[in-house]
Amino acid sequence: MPRAMLTSLTPFNLTFSKPAAAAAAVAHFSLSALPDSNPNHLNLAHSLQSETLEILEWASVCNHLSALASTSMGFSAAQNAQIPLGKSKSESLKLLDQTAAAISAIAEIGSPPSDFHSVEDVSEIVNAAVSGKLLTVNELCAVRRTLIAAKALFEKLKALASGADSDRYLPLLEVLEDCDFLVKLERTIGLCVDCNLSEILDKASEDLEIIRFEKKRNMEKLDALLKEVSAKIFKAGGIDSPLVTKRRARMCVGVRARYKYLVPHGVVLDASSSGATYFMEPSEAVELNNMEVRLLNAEKAEEIGILSFLTSEVAKSEAEIVYLLDKIVEADLAFARAAYAQWMNGVRPIFSSKDDKGLDKGATEIGMLVDIEGIQHPLLLESSLRSLSDAVAYSSRRSLSSKDGNDVKLIYGSLSSGVSDFPVPIDIKIGYGTRVVVISGPNTGGKTASMKTLGLASLMSKAGMYLPAKSQPRLPWFDLVLADIGDQQSLEQSLSTFSGHISRICNILEVASKESLVLIDEIGSGTDPSEGVALSTSILQYLKDRVNLAVVTTHYADLSLLKEKDHQFENAAMEFSPETLLPTYRVLWGSIGDSNALSIAKSIGFNQQVIEHAQDWVEKLRPEKQQERKGLLYRSLVEERNRLEAQAKTAATLHSETRDIYREIQDEAEDLDMRKRALMAKETLQVRKEVKIVKSQLEAVLQEFDNRLKTAGADQLNLLIKKSEAAVASIIEAHSPEDGFLVNETSETSYTPRSGEQVYLKGLRDKIATVVDAPGDDGTVLVQYGKIKVRLKNNEIRAIPSSEKNATTSSAPRLKQRGWQSRTAESKDGEVSYSPAIQTSKNTVDLRGMRAEEASYNLDMAIASRESQSVLFVVHGMGTGVIKERALEILRKHPRVAKFEAESPMNYGCTVAYIK
Asked: If you write DSSP's letter for every residue of 221-282 in order, what string do you get?
C-alpha cells in the first residue's frame, strides 16, 4: 500500500515518434544544396558564409529581431544570429508563409499570444533529469508551466484557424500540430506538487499521506504536553512566561537555572547566552520527540522518492519536450518576424526563377530576375526609425509635463505617416539574361551600400523576413551569398590588401554554384590598373558561367565595356549631381558612372591649384570634348527623367480626381434611386388616399339620393337628379388636374433651355441646376448640379417659371459653395455669355497668407490656366488690404480679364473675374 499512489501514476506508454535530431538547434547556414560533399569543401563554404554574414552585418538584423521575441529561447536564438535560413526554396517559402500567418494573427488579436511569456527554457532542467540529478519542486513546476502554456498556445492558434479565413493561419498551426504536449506528465506533476506553495502534496502518495497524518497527531500530543509542563513551571515562578521552543531539532521548555528541579529527570538541551535559562526536554516528551524525528526522516525519504519518480518521468519525455521547445521557438520567431515586418512597413518578397520569366501574377516587369522597387538598407532604416521613436518619446514626455496634448498628436501623426525617407530608397532591376552586373560611380556614392542591401535582402528572404520595399519585390533564391567587401589585409598571414582580396575571391570561385550570389567590392583594386583590369575581366568572364548572379563595383571604365560584347553583362551607375557636387545615392541601371574624383575633392575643400592641374591632365588623357558630351547627355537625361516624373505625378492626380468624381456620381445615383422609390411609394399612397376619399364622397351622394328618392314626389324627381349630378360634378372637379398643370406639361415638351439658365431636375425632386451647354443634335442638354455635370434629356428637366426665378435664386442651398447671381445668359445688348458663376475648388484661387509677389504669380498662373468665357473667384481676404489692392490692379490690367466684380456684402474678401 505505501507505493499504491505512485504505481497508479507510472504507466505512460511513451512512443518516441520524433528523431533525436529534433532536439538539435536550428542550423543557420544552408549548405545542403552544394554539389560537392567533400568535407574540406563544406568547411570552406561554411567559413566563407560565416564571414559573409559578418560583412553584411547579419547579426545586427538578428539582434533587432531578438527584441521582438516573446520567449527567452527565441531571444537567445536571434541574439546569437541562429534564426533559421531556408536550406531550400521550399523551406524559405514555408518560413514566409509562417510570417504572413503571424501578421494575420497579430491583426486579429492585436499582439502575439500572451502564452509565449509563460513558456520557460527548461532544456537545462531536462538535461539535468537525464543525467540523473534529482529535480526540485520549482524545476518540476517550471516544466509543468511550460507544458500548460504550449498547450494553450496551440489551442489559441487552433481557434484562429477554425474561423472564416482558416487557411491564413494553417502555416502557424502546422508548426505545433504534430507536437506531443505531454498532458499526462503535466497532470501527474500537478497531482503531486503544489506550485503555488512550492511543496509536495499529501496526496502524492499513500505513504506520505499516512506519515504526515501521524506526524501531525504526534506533534499535537507533544505540544499539549510541553504547554502543560511550561504552565506548571510558570505557576511555580520558574519562568517569567510559559515558553515552548525547539533546540537541537527537539521540542523543549524554558526554565530558570535555579528552578531546574521543577523538571525532574529532564534533559538539558541548551542554555541561554547568560546561563540564566535552561532549555530542558521533560522525560515524558523524550519518546514523542523521538517519534517526531523518525516521522520527519520518513517524510523526507518519501518526498525524495516522489521527486525521483517525477524526475524519471521528465527524463523519459526528453525527446518530446525538446522537440516541443524547438517548435515553440519556431512559432515565436515567426511572430517576431511579423512584428519586425509591421515595424518597418515590410512587404513579402517573391522568389523568381528561370522558368517564369516574370510572367507570373506578381511580376511588375516582364523579364526581370531581380525586380525590387524602393528598397531601403534595413540597418540604416532601423537607426532612422529608432531615432524617430526616440523623438516621439521625448516629445511625449515634454508635452505631458506641459499638459498640452496637441504636441503629442502632432508627433505621433508624423510617426504614423509612413517610413522615413532615410536611407534613400533604391531600385534594383536585373534582367533574366544577366549574370554579372558592374556598378561604377563616385566614392561615397552608395555603391557598396547598394550591394550590401541586395545581399541582406537575399538573406532576409531566405529567413522568411519581409523587405522594406514597395510593391512586391522579386529576387531569386540563392543557396549561398558570398561577399568580398572591405579590406582583407592580414599581417598575421602576411597578406597585403590586394593579396587578401585575391585569396578570398579564389575561395569564392571554388565553392560558388549555379544558385549562388557573389558580391565583390572594388574588384581588381590595389595593383597596377592595367593588370587589375585584365585580371578583373578574366574573373568576371569565369563567374558568368558558374553563378546565378554576380554584382561587382569598380572604378575601371574598361569593365563597363564588357556589356557591348556579351549580353550576360549589365552596367549600373550611382547618380551624381553636377550642380551640388554631391551623390544622390540612386542607382541608374544600364548606365556608366564617372568616379567624379575631382568634383568630390573640390567639394571637400581641396587645394584649387592642385585640382586645376589635375583637370588639365584629365583633358589631355581623355578624347577631346568627350567629357563635355557626357555632361550634356547626362543633363538631358536628367531633364527628361524629371519631365516624365512630373507627367506621372500629373496623371496620378488626374486619376485620383476622376475616381473621386466617379464615386460622387455613384453615390448620387444610388441616392437618386432610393429617392425615386420613396417618391413613387408616396405618390401611390396619395393616389390611393384620394381614390378612397372620392369613393366615400360618391357613396355619400348616392346614399343621399336614395334616401330622398323614397320620399320625393314625381314633380321633385328632376330637381333631385340635377342636384345629385351637380354634387358628383363638383367632386370630379375638385380632384381633377389644374389647367395650369396641363399648360405647363404642354409647354415643357416644347421647352428649349439656354446656356446659363437655371432649371428644375425632375429626377431630383425639382432640385435647381444650371445649364452648361445648349441642347445638341441628340436632344440632350449638359447641366451642372454642385460639382457634378451630367447630360439629360429635355423631358428630364423643367423650366423655372419667371415668377419663381428670383425666389429660387435667393433660397438656393449653399452647402459648400457661395452662389453669385447668374450672368450666363446673353443680354439684350448682345453681351458674351460666361460659364455658371458658381464657386468651386477648380475655379478659385486663394491668395490669403501669401506675400505680394507670391500672390501676383499665383493669380497670373490662375488666369492663364482658365478656359475662355469662364469665371475665376479671387479670394484675397480683408487683412491690411495689400493683397487685395495688388489683385485688383492685376485684374484691371490683365488682357484676359473682360471685367470683374468687387466683393459684395454677402461675400467679403472675394472678387469675381470674367475671363475673355
From this structure: HHHHHHHHHHHHHHHTTSSSS--EEEETTEEEEEEEGGGGGGSTT-EEEEE-TTSSEEEEE-
Tell me the C-alpha distance between 301 and 297, whole Å: 6
Residue 90, strand partner residues: none
| Rounded distance between C-alpha atoms, residue 377 and residue 496, angstroms | 30
Spatial CA neighbour of 484 closest among 517, 436, 513? 517
Find the Cα–Cα–Cα–Cα dihedral 520, 522, 524, 525, rounded to 10°.
-150
Phi, psi of 521 (to 5 degrees): -100, 130
- Locus of grid cell 511625449: 396
Q: What is the pTM for the complete model shown?
A: 0.59
Task: Give CA–CA dist 508/551, Å, rounded.
Answer: 13
Distance CA 772, CA 511 (A): 75
Please give the DSSP secondary-structure letter assigned to residue 751.
Answer: -
Give CA separation, 878 vs 290, 680, 816, 818, 910, in Å. Answer: 106, 50, 21, 17, 9
Give the β-pairing of 481-484 and 277-281. unpaired
- For residue 909, give the H/E element and its range: none
Residues with Cβ within 8 Å of residue 382, at least 6 apart in sequence: 60, 64, 344
Question: 571 φ, ψ to 5°?
Answer: -105, 155
Cα 110 to Cα 448: distance, rounded to the nearest angstrom: 39
Distance CA 434, CA 568 (A): 4
In 85-209, which ranges are E strands? 193-194, 199-200
Q: Which of 222, 191, 197 is nearest to 294 (CA)?
A: 222
Distance in angstroms (rounded) separating the CA atoms of residues 900 and 884: 13
Give ∠ CA 545-551-555 in degrees, rounded to 5. Answer: 115
Helices then strands, counting H and E runs in the chain, come out as 26, 25
CA atoms within 13 A on the CB side of 867: 4
CA torsion sign, 114 to 116 to 121 to 122? positive
Strands, E, within 342-469: which ranges? 350-352, 368-375, 426-431, 436-440
Q: For residue 545, which amino acid is it?
A: D
Task: With H, G, I as helix, E, B as strand and everything else as coil, classify residue 589.
Answer: strand
Rounded mean pLDDT for each run of 10 residues along the chain, 916 residues in total: 37 33 37 58 86 90 90 91 90 93 87 86 92 92 93 88 77 89 92 90 90 92 92 90 90 92 90 91 91 92 93 93 93 92 90 62 58 87 59 41 40 40 81 88 74 92 92 90 72 55 86 91 77 85 89 82 85 73 72 63 72 67 56 78 88 87 80 78 84 84 80 74 77 62 48 80 76 78 76 82 51 39 42 65 84 87 84 81 86 88 71 88
For residue 481, which of 518, 447, 520 has the smallest C-alpha distance?
Answer: 518
How many residues in total does the chain contain?
Answer: 916
State how far the Cα of 807 lies from the Cα of 812, in Å rounded to an integer.
8
Contact 395, 411 (CB under 8 A): yes
Q: For residues 507 and 49, give the distance between their C-alpha atoms in angstroms, rounded to a whole number.
A: 11
Nearest to residue 694, comparing CAs of 723, 732, 668? Answer: 732
Give me the residues paired with residue 373 across strands: 470
d(CA 179, CA 328): 10
Please state, in angstroms and rounded to a whole number, the distance separating the CA atoms of residues 97 and 92.
Answer: 9
**Cα separations in angstroms, 748 against 719, 744, 803:** 44, 6, 16
865 contacts 913 by C-beta, under 8 angstroms: no
Distance CA 649, CA 551 (A): 33
Cβ atoms of 748 and 766 within 8 Å: the answer is no
Provide the angle, in degrees to the nearest 10, between the axes of the packed helices 529-543 and 497-511.
10
> How far is CA 198 from each of CA 6, 141, 621, rounded to the nearest angstrom?
19, 8, 86
Helix (H) or strand (E) holding 150: helix 137-161
Kindly list the distances between the CA atom of residue 601 and the CA atoms of 301, 442, 571, 622, 628, in Å, as whole numbers in the listed order: 84, 11, 25, 19, 20
CA distances from 105 to 148, 339, 694 (A): 21, 11, 67
3-state secondary structure of 182: coil
The 8-class DSSP code of residue 159 comes to H
